[in-house]
Amino acid sequence: MGRVQGKVALVTGGASGIGLSAATLLAKEGASVVIGDFNVDGAKEAAREIRNQGGEATGIFLDASKEESIAEAVDFTVKKYGSLTILYNNVGLTNIQKDLDVVNIDLDEWDRLMNVNTKSVVIGSRYAIPHMKEAGGGSIINTASMAAFASDSIRSAYGASKAAVVQLTKYIATQYGKDGIRCNGVAPGLILTPAAKNNLSEELQATFMRYNALPYHGDPDDIGNAVLFLASDESKFMTGQTLQIEGGHYLANPTVPFFNEMAAKQKESN
Ligand SMILES: NC(=O)c1ccc[n+]([C@@H]2O[C@H](COP(=O)([O-])OP(=O)(O)OC[C@H]3O[C@@H](n4cnc5c(N)ncnc54)[C@H](O)[C@@H]3O)[C@@H](O)[C@H]2O)c1
Fold it and tell me: Is ligand 1 within 6 A of the CB of residue 145?
Protein backbone atom coordinates (compact mmCIF):
# COMPACT_ATOMS: atom_id res chain seq x y z
CA MET A 1 0.00 0.00 0.00
CA GLY A 2 1.31 3.46 -0.95
CA ARG A 3 2.21 6.06 1.65
CA VAL A 4 -0.61 8.37 0.51
CA GLN A 5 -2.93 5.70 -0.89
CA GLY A 6 -6.48 6.93 -1.47
CA LYS A 7 -5.67 10.60 -0.88
CA VAL A 8 -6.42 13.32 -3.44
CA ALA A 9 -3.89 16.08 -4.08
CA LEU A 10 -3.86 19.42 -5.87
CA VAL A 11 -0.34 20.63 -6.66
CA THR A 12 0.05 24.20 -7.89
CA GLY A 13 2.98 24.93 -10.22
CA GLY A 14 3.41 21.20 -10.78
CA ALA A 15 4.53 21.27 -14.41
CA SER A 16 8.20 21.63 -13.52
CA GLY A 17 10.84 21.73 -10.81
CA ILE A 18 9.85 21.12 -7.20
CA GLY A 19 6.11 20.86 -7.91
CA LEU A 20 6.69 18.24 -10.61
CA SER A 21 8.79 16.16 -8.22
CA ALA A 22 6.14 16.35 -5.49
CA ALA A 23 3.30 15.48 -7.92
CA THR A 24 5.25 12.51 -9.28
CA LEU A 25 6.16 11.16 -5.83
CA LEU A 26 2.63 11.63 -4.46
CA ALA A 27 1.17 9.72 -7.42
CA LYS A 28 3.81 6.99 -7.10
CA GLU A 29 2.71 6.51 -3.48
CA GLY A 30 -0.96 6.14 -4.36
CA ALA A 31 -2.52 9.63 -4.41
CA SER A 32 -4.69 10.87 -7.26
CA VAL A 33 -3.07 14.14 -8.32
CA VAL A 34 -4.28 17.25 -10.11
CA ILE A 35 -1.40 19.31 -11.48
CA GLY A 36 -2.43 22.94 -11.87
CA ASP A 37 -0.07 25.19 -13.78
CA PHE A 38 0.09 28.32 -15.86
CA ASN A 39 1.92 26.12 -18.37
CA VAL A 40 -1.05 23.91 -19.19
CA ASP A 41 0.81 21.88 -21.83
CA GLY A 42 3.52 21.14 -19.27
CA ALA A 43 0.90 20.16 -16.68
CA LYS A 44 -0.80 17.79 -19.14
CA GLU A 45 2.52 16.30 -20.21
CA ALA A 46 3.52 15.73 -16.56
CA ALA A 47 0.18 14.02 -15.86
CA ARG A 48 0.57 11.83 -18.96
CA GLU A 49 4.02 10.76 -17.79
CA ILE A 50 2.64 9.88 -14.34
CA ARG A 51 -0.16 7.81 -15.90
CA ASN A 52 2.39 6.06 -18.13
CA GLN A 53 4.18 5.05 -14.94
CA GLY A 54 0.94 3.58 -13.53
CA GLY A 55 -0.13 6.55 -11.36
CA GLU A 56 -3.28 8.68 -11.52
CA ALA A 57 -2.96 12.35 -12.50
CA THR A 58 -4.66 15.09 -14.52
CA GLY A 59 -3.10 18.33 -15.75
CA ILE A 60 -5.12 21.55 -15.85
CA PHE A 61 -4.63 25.29 -16.32
CA LEU A 62 -4.25 27.26 -13.10
CA ASP A 63 -3.25 30.89 -12.65
CA ALA A 64 -2.18 31.34 -9.04
CA SER A 65 -2.54 35.12 -9.33
CA LYS A 66 -6.33 34.80 -9.79
CA GLU A 67 -8.81 33.78 -7.12
CA GLU A 68 -11.35 32.36 -9.57
CA SER A 69 -8.72 30.20 -11.25
CA ILE A 70 -7.62 28.68 -7.91
CA ALA A 71 -11.28 28.14 -6.93
CA GLU A 72 -11.92 26.39 -10.26
CA ALA A 73 -8.91 24.10 -9.76
CA VAL A 74 -10.17 23.09 -6.30
CA ASP A 75 -13.66 22.46 -7.74
CA PHE A 76 -12.22 20.45 -10.62
CA THR A 77 -10.21 18.27 -8.23
CA VAL A 78 -13.22 17.45 -6.06
CA LYS A 79 -15.44 16.72 -9.08
CA LYS A 80 -12.80 14.56 -10.76
CA TYR A 81 -11.58 12.53 -7.78
CA GLY A 82 -14.36 12.90 -5.19
CA SER A 83 -12.48 14.83 -2.46
CA LEU A 84 -9.43 16.97 -1.72
CA THR A 85 -7.17 15.89 1.14
CA ILE A 86 -3.75 17.26 0.12
CA LEU A 87 -3.14 20.80 -1.09
CA TYR A 88 0.40 21.72 -2.09
CA ASN A 89 0.59 25.52 -2.49
CA ASN A 90 3.85 25.59 -4.42
CA VAL A 91 3.71 28.41 -6.98
CA GLY A 92 6.18 31.18 -6.27
CA LEU A 93 7.88 33.90 -8.29
CA THR A 94 11.10 35.80 -7.97
CA ASN A 95 12.49 38.67 -10.09
CA ILE A 96 16.02 39.92 -9.56
CA GLN A 97 15.57 42.78 -12.05
CA LYS A 98 12.70 44.55 -10.29
CA ASP A 99 12.58 43.12 -6.77
CA LEU A 100 15.44 45.17 -5.33
CA ASP A 101 16.33 46.88 -2.04
CA VAL A 102 13.54 48.88 -0.39
CA VAL A 103 14.61 52.22 -1.86
CA ASN A 104 14.74 50.94 -5.44
CA ILE A 105 12.15 48.17 -5.54
CA ASP A 106 9.44 48.46 -8.18
CA LEU A 107 6.29 48.69 -6.05
CA ASP A 108 4.11 47.06 -8.70
CA GLU A 109 6.48 44.09 -8.50
CA TRP A 110 6.08 44.11 -4.70
CA ASP A 111 2.31 43.77 -5.18
CA ARG A 112 2.69 41.07 -7.83
CA LEU A 113 4.99 38.90 -5.70
CA MET A 114 2.86 39.33 -2.59
CA ASN A 115 -0.18 38.36 -4.64
CA VAL A 116 1.32 35.26 -6.26
CA ASN A 117 3.60 34.06 -3.44
CA THR A 118 1.45 34.81 -0.39
CA LYS A 119 -2.15 35.55 -1.28
CA SER A 120 -2.37 32.39 -3.40
CA VAL A 121 -1.65 30.37 -0.23
CA VAL A 122 -4.56 32.09 1.53
CA ILE A 123 -6.87 31.55 -1.42
CA GLY A 124 -5.90 27.92 -2.08
CA SER A 125 -6.38 27.10 1.60
CA ARG A 126 -9.65 29.04 1.81
CA TYR A 127 -11.22 26.96 -0.98
CA ALA A 128 -9.66 23.63 0.02
CA ILE A 129 -10.44 23.71 3.76
CA PRO A 130 -14.23 23.16 3.50
CA HIS A 131 -13.58 20.02 1.41
CA MET A 132 -10.94 18.81 3.86
CA LYS A 133 -13.40 19.32 6.73
CA GLU A 134 -15.93 17.26 4.82
CA ALA A 135 -13.35 14.51 4.32
CA GLY A 136 -12.54 14.52 8.06
CA GLY A 137 -9.11 16.14 7.65
CA GLY A 138 -6.30 16.94 5.28
CA SER A 139 -2.77 18.22 4.84
CA ILE A 140 -1.85 21.63 3.45
CA ILE A 141 1.78 22.13 2.48
CA ASN A 142 3.26 25.48 1.48
CA THR A 143 6.50 26.25 -0.29
CA ALA A 144 8.36 28.97 1.56
CA SER A 145 12.09 29.58 1.01
CA MET A 146 15.25 30.10 3.04
CA ALA A 147 14.80 33.73 1.92
CA ALA A 148 12.14 33.83 4.67
CA PHE A 149 14.87 33.35 7.30
CA ALA A 150 18.00 35.01 5.87
CA SER A 151 17.96 38.48 4.36
CA ASP A 152 19.57 39.59 1.14
CA SER A 153 20.81 42.78 -0.54
CA ILE A 154 17.93 42.55 -3.06
CA ARG A 155 14.68 40.50 -3.33
CA SER A 156 12.91 42.33 -0.51
CA ALA A 157 9.45 41.32 -1.75
CA TYR A 158 10.40 37.69 -2.30
CA GLY A 159 11.81 37.39 1.24
CA ALA A 160 8.90 39.18 2.87
CA SER A 161 6.33 37.19 0.86
CA LYS A 162 7.96 33.89 1.86
CA ALA A 163 8.30 34.94 5.53
CA ALA A 164 4.56 35.63 5.42
CA VAL A 165 4.04 32.09 4.08
CA VAL A 166 5.93 30.68 7.09
CA GLN A 167 3.71 32.63 9.47
CA LEU A 168 0.51 31.81 7.57
CA THR A 169 1.44 28.14 7.84
CA LYS A 170 1.27 28.51 11.65
CA TYR A 171 -2.02 30.42 11.52
CA ILE A 172 -3.72 27.85 9.29
CA ALA A 173 -2.40 25.03 11.52
CA THR A 174 -3.81 26.78 14.60
CA GLN A 175 -7.16 27.69 13.07
CA TYR A 176 -8.05 24.29 11.54
CA GLY A 177 -6.15 21.77 13.64
CA LYS A 178 -9.28 20.69 15.48
CA ASP A 179 -10.80 19.80 12.10
CA GLY A 180 -7.98 17.33 11.54
CA ILE A 181 -6.33 19.66 9.06
CA ARG A 182 -2.55 19.98 9.33
CA CYS A 183 -0.52 22.73 7.70
CA ASN A 184 3.25 22.58 7.25
CA GLY A 185 5.80 24.10 4.93
CA VAL A 186 9.08 23.46 3.19
CA ALA A 187 11.80 26.11 2.95
CA PRO A 188 14.21 25.13 0.19
CA GLY A 189 17.72 26.49 -0.13
CA LEU A 190 19.16 26.46 -3.64
CA ILE A 191 17.58 23.58 -5.55
CA LEU A 192 18.99 22.80 -8.96
CA THR A 193 15.79 22.51 -10.93
CA PRO A 194 16.22 22.47 -14.73
CA ALA A 195 15.39 26.23 -14.72
CA ALA A 196 17.93 26.98 -11.97
CA LYS A 197 20.59 24.94 -13.78
CA ASN A 198 20.04 27.02 -16.92
CA ASN A 199 20.05 30.34 -15.11
CA LEU A 200 22.95 29.93 -12.67
CA SER A 201 26.50 30.11 -13.99
CA GLU A 202 29.04 27.49 -12.88
CA GLU A 203 30.72 30.23 -10.86
CA LEU A 204 27.54 31.05 -8.97
CA GLN A 205 26.84 27.36 -8.32
CA ALA A 206 30.38 27.03 -6.92
CA THR A 207 29.78 30.04 -4.66
CA PHE A 208 26.69 28.35 -3.21
CA MET A 209 28.62 25.10 -2.76
CA ARG A 210 31.37 26.89 -0.82
CA TYR A 211 28.87 27.63 1.96
CA ASN A 212 27.04 24.26 1.96
CA ALA A 213 27.86 21.91 4.83
CA LEU A 214 27.19 19.03 2.41
CA PRO A 215 29.34 18.50 -0.70
CA TYR A 216 26.45 18.61 -3.20
CA HIS A 217 23.53 20.78 -4.32
CA GLY A 218 19.85 20.09 -3.67
CA ASP A 219 17.66 18.57 -6.34
CA PRO A 220 13.86 18.71 -6.71
CA ASP A 221 13.32 15.29 -5.09
CA ASP A 222 14.99 16.56 -1.89
CA ILE A 223 11.94 18.80 -1.52
CA GLY A 224 9.44 16.42 -3.16
CA ASN A 225 10.26 13.72 -0.61
CA ALA A 226 9.68 16.12 2.29
CA VAL A 227 6.33 17.12 0.76
CA LEU A 228 5.40 13.45 0.48
CA PHE A 229 6.23 12.94 4.17
CA LEU A 230 4.18 16.01 5.18
CA ALA A 231 1.26 14.84 3.01
CA SER A 232 1.29 11.34 4.49
CA ASP A 233 0.03 10.18 7.88
CA GLU A 234 3.66 9.54 8.85
CA SER A 235 3.70 13.20 9.92
CA LYS A 236 0.28 13.07 11.62
CA PHE A 237 1.46 14.74 14.86
CA MET A 238 3.27 17.54 13.05
CA THR A 239 1.65 20.86 12.22
CA GLY A 240 2.61 24.52 11.86
CA GLN A 241 6.23 23.67 11.04
CA THR A 242 8.38 24.70 8.10
CA LEU A 243 11.19 22.29 7.27
CA GLN A 244 14.43 23.99 6.25
CA ILE A 245 15.96 21.85 3.50
CA GLU A 246 19.15 23.59 2.46
CA GLY A 247 22.23 21.35 2.71
CA GLY A 248 23.47 23.16 5.80
CA HIS A 249 24.03 26.30 3.75
CA TYR A 250 22.79 28.58 6.54
CA LEU A 251 23.97 26.39 9.40
CA ALA A 252 27.36 27.60 10.48
CA ASN A 253 29.31 30.68 11.37
CA PRO A 254 29.91 32.48 8.01
CA THR A 255 33.69 32.35 8.60
CA VAL A 256 33.78 28.50 8.40
CA PRO A 257 34.58 28.30 4.64
CA PHE A 258 37.42 30.79 5.13
CA PHE A 259 39.00 28.77 7.95
CA ASN A 260 38.48 25.48 6.08
CA GLU A 261 40.25 26.90 3.03
CA MET A 262 43.05 28.34 5.19
CA ALA A 263 43.55 24.94 6.87
CA ALA A 264 43.63 23.20 3.47
CA LYS A 265 46.29 25.63 2.20
CA GLN A 266 48.39 25.09 5.33
CA LYS A 267 48.16 21.30 4.91
CA GLU A 268 49.25 21.66 1.28
CA SER A 269 52.30 23.76 2.16
CA ASN A 270 53.42 21.35 4.96
N1 LIG B 1 14.50 26.28 -6.98
C2 LIG B 1 14.94 26.87 -5.88
O3 LIG B 1 16.16 27.00 -5.66
C4 LIG B 1 13.96 27.38 -4.85
C5 LIG B 1 14.48 27.84 -3.63
C6 LIG B 1 13.60 28.30 -2.66
C7 LIG B 1 12.23 28.32 -2.91
N8 LIG B 1 11.76 27.89 -4.12
C9 LIG B 1 10.32 27.94 -4.31
O10 LIG B 1 9.86 26.68 -4.80
C11 LIG B 1 8.68 26.88 -5.59
C12 LIG B 1 8.84 26.18 -6.91
O13 LIG B 1 9.99 26.70 -7.54
P14 LIG B 1 10.77 25.92 -8.70
O15 LIG B 1 12.20 26.33 -8.55
O16 LIG B 1 10.39 24.52 -8.75
O17 LIG B 1 10.20 26.72 -9.95
P18 LIG B 1 10.01 26.33 -11.48
O19 LIG B 1 10.17 27.59 -12.23
O20 LIG B 1 10.86 25.16 -11.87
O21 LIG B 1 8.48 25.87 -11.51
C22 LIG B 1 7.48 26.75 -11.18
C23 LIG B 1 6.20 26.32 -11.89
O24 LIG B 1 5.18 27.24 -11.51
C25 LIG B 1 4.46 27.64 -12.66
N26 LIG B 1 3.90 28.97 -12.44
C27 LIG B 1 4.54 30.15 -12.40
N28 LIG B 1 3.65 31.15 -12.16
C29 LIG B 1 2.44 30.56 -12.05
C30 LIG B 1 1.14 31.06 -11.82
N31 LIG B 1 0.89 32.36 -11.65
N32 LIG B 1 0.12 30.18 -11.77
C33 LIG B 1 0.33 28.86 -11.95
N34 LIG B 1 1.54 28.33 -12.19
C35 LIG B 1 2.59 29.18 -12.25
C36 LIG B 1 5.46 27.59 -13.80
O37 LIG B 1 4.83 27.45 -15.07
C38 LIG B 1 6.31 26.37 -13.41
O39 LIG B 1 5.78 25.17 -13.95
C40 LIG B 1 8.48 28.39 -5.67
O41 LIG B 1 7.54 28.78 -4.69
C42 LIG B 1 9.85 28.95 -5.33
O43 LIG B 1 9.79 30.25 -4.80
C44 LIG B 1 12.59 27.42 -5.10
Answer: yes
Residues 6+ apart with CB under 8 A from 188: 18, 143, 145, 146, 218, 222, 223, 245, 246
Whether 85 lines ligand 1, by a CB cut-off of 6 Å, is no
Spatial CA neighbour of 192 closest among 155, 228, 160, 222: 222
CA separation for the pair 258, 209 (Å, rounded): 13
Residue 270's pLDDT band, with cuts at 50, 70 and 90, is confident
Q: How far is the CA of 5 from the centre of ligand 1 (A)?
A: 26
DSSP assignment of 97-140: TT---TTT--HHHHHHHIIIIIIHHHHHHHHHHHHHHHHT-EEE
Give residues with Cβ within 8 angstroms of 161, minimum separation 6.
Answer: 92, 113, 114, 117, 118
Mean pLDDT of the chain, nearest integer = 97
Tell me which of 148-162, 209-223, 253-267 is least confident: 253-267
Give 136 Cα–ligand 1 centroid separation in angstroms: 30
How many Cβ atoms from other residues are within 10 Å of residue 94's Cβ?
A: 16
Contact yes or no for 179/132 (Cβ under 8 A): yes
Determine which one of 158, 176, 211, 250 is catalytic: 158
Q: Give the pLDDT confidence score for residue 152 in this predicted structure.
A: 97
8-269 folds as Rossmann fold (3.40.50)
Q: What is the pLDDT of residues 182-194, one digit of tens each?
A: 999 999 999 999 9
Say whether pLDDT at 199 is over 90: no
